Amino acid sequence: MNKKQISYILIIFILVISLIFILSLNLDLGLGNLHKNNEGFTPYIRKIYRPHLRNTRIFVENTVSTCKIKLHNIARKIGVM
Known about the structure:
The protein contains two helices and no strands. The protein is mainly α and 81 residues long. The chain folds into two domains: 1-40, no CATH class; 45-81. The longest helix is centred in the C-terminal third of the chain and has 37 residues, at 42-78. The relative contact order is 0.06.
């Protein structure tokens, strides 16, 4: 093997190792678990969907409270309450 082939193999090796390291830090795959508080892959999923769940919860709470107020006003106008 000549120097060009050795340098090519070394560059590919370094790129693969750095890619694995970056993926293990970002996705927490467990290859180099530096995040001691996380429990694997599920916290990453929760972190992604947490804003959607929060927005859905807020929308449902607002809708229920609005309906509750409207029903209370209708019942008060009819004389039930």
